Amino acid sequence: MKNSIIGYYSTKFGELWEQSLDDLILEAWNGILAETKIEKERIDAIFLGNMLGGVVEHALLLSAHVAELTGLQVPVYRMEAACASGGLAFQNANEYVHAHPGSTVLVIGAEKMTDSGAAEITRALATAASTDEQAVGLTFPGVYALMAQIYLAQYGYTEEHLASISVKNHAHGVLNEKAHFRRYVTIDNVLESPYVAYPLKVLDSSPISDGAAALILSSDQALVKQSRHVVSVLASELATDTISIARRTRLDTLEATVLAGRKAYAAAHVTQADIDVMEVHDCFSIAEILALEDLGFWEKGTGGAKAQEMSTHLKSGGNLIVNTSGGLKAAGHPVGSTGIKQIGEVYLQLTGQAGLRQVGKRTHGLAHNVGGSGGMAIVTILGV
Amino acid sequence: MKNSIIGYYSTKFGELWEQSLDDLILEAWNGILAETKIEKERIDAIFLGNMLGGVVEHALLLSAHVAELTGLQVPVYRMEAACASGGLAFQNANEYVHAHPGSTVLVIGAEKMTDSGAAEITRALATAASTDEQAVGLTFPGVYALMAQIYLAQYGYTEEHLASISVKNHAHGVLNEKAHFRRYVTIDNVLESPYVAYPLKVLDSSPISDGAAALILSSDQALVKQSRHVVSVLASELATDTISIARRTRLDTLEATVLAGRKAYAAAHVTQADIDVMEVHDCFSIAEILALEDLGFWEKGTGGAKAQEMSTHLKSGGNLIVNTSGGLKAAGHPVGSTGIKQIGEVYLQLTGQAGLRQVGKRTHGLAHNVGGSGGMAIVTILGV
Prior knowledge:
2 copies of one chain form a homodimer. By secondary structure, the first copy, chain A, is an alpha/beta fold. The first copy, chain A, has 15 helices and 12 strands. In chain A, strands 3-2-4-7-1-8-12-11-9-10 form a 10-stranded mixed β-sheet, with helices on both faces. In chain A, strands 5-6 form a two-stranded antiparallel ribbon.
């Protein structure tokens, strides 16, 4: 028996100066209750994705924050896997619901990042890199810049190829009322934006955002039956890899993505050809290209050219549309929330609730969430 | 079908200047493989308890550290619930093994605390308290000092009653070769030690420690059958409570402990009378008294007198022996490891491997791990 997602709510993503971490959790909680109209006493356990609560908000034991805000005393599991914290919370929740047939759980991601200065948040994000590599000054954009340099050199692409990803995702973000950025950018805008770490520029990079997102996951068949919008979780699989990029044999692929993808396709009994809509982890433009290749949609090394074709653009009429939410790039990247938002966006698409950014054909969707520079990857496949 | 613990390994707890966080994880990993003689490829998933990696060691995404150190690419779940991180990792692992019959998982706790100065580590630990309460200067010893003040005033006890807990646990710690402190203290030593937060003194308080501990949990019946030392996990249950102590109706009880205990007794089909040996969360002397009351062994308000009787001392010949490891007080409290060490100590006792501190009658044991000031409690019951 597959578990079902029966509701989704997301706060606005962005620079939410007026909301604290607890405020964001509370809005997502109230939002998901209003959306699903379920009584809070039906929640058997809560899974929380958050990366930086301890580091920048001086708040650990967030489980007890959640207990206080919800008024529940049920198990609350806080998961941390850097930018994959949300996907990990979902993946673990899916295991839990399998262990407890008939149960209903809340999966919530929340992150408050904009209370910190740029230097502080850059240092905080760098904790997801090897401590040895941090020590020699490698920041997080630096890690992905190394991947981009190798990719461009090895397969003969230019920064313009990378820029296509940002142009597409910004165009999608315009259609998402919850997105951090809702404006079009052009190839020239991207190319003219300042370098963060060569060859990656500001407009190749996802922003620092605040936001929370929540899902209800259930195997309570009576509850599922009475829910208006339901999708099945066909698979949610994860794989890990070394923390040090120096220990990897290749930098033009994230092996954790390859492994998690293979496990997910096998568990879901689907192939790439079945997937209609997909959210992938585009923390930097290069990451979306690697993801499409590593998940088996594009052959290794062809992604630069494929990106330029924009066949995954909503307006392309193509049969695989990627990052309709705007991706991390335009929808924003409140790290612990991202993995939940990705699954939520696929849920909205598969249930026909995606409004202006609704894709046409839609029976299967995939969400792909990455921790660090590929130390963890989670692939979740949903179907209706 | 109950899951089984088939092996346990702990590093020394203490001020381990020569070992990094990764070194501790690696020692625990090599130790548990040597102890159980299982091939590492049999590990299907890893559950890691760690509180402060991000805050004091600048290391998040510890899942990828574990992947690199073990050479495995399996799911690695990092759980954080302050001082209950280890117990939470175990509790979640137990759910996972139920979801995957025939699976075998590693549960590991690791914490590196002594690289930081006293002020930094005090601030870091305070992140497990409400941010509002932190903001007005309430430190972690301060929270437990409030509980102790109320308890002593309400039930007519003195600091001497509290001191009995430390005297007993230090006596046990002398017998534990892995303990942080291996020396006897007297009631006078405790009473003469400096105040940390009135009425709690240095010798009422658990120390800042480094250390790691690991368990193998399995439902692979062939593997369990060939293992030399096996105990069954009869129950592992958790409950949560508010982060703010101001929101609690009483401060002489931890409601999360009461709830988790009730759930665990019911799930395990045992009563307090069945328990022979127990590790409880004595982060401060008052906490052990509250734990024994909240878990239903001592009537509320009688714990001060009971503590003074020392009926839970190994040398008492009593039928319930508490904190044979030395507890957090003497064995040390590397926070993410504590919950694993508690379960590990009960495992050693039930399998007759506790050496000099071995209790006599032993069929059932209990481990009790608390996060923060009771925002989370986990109660695990083991049996042979």
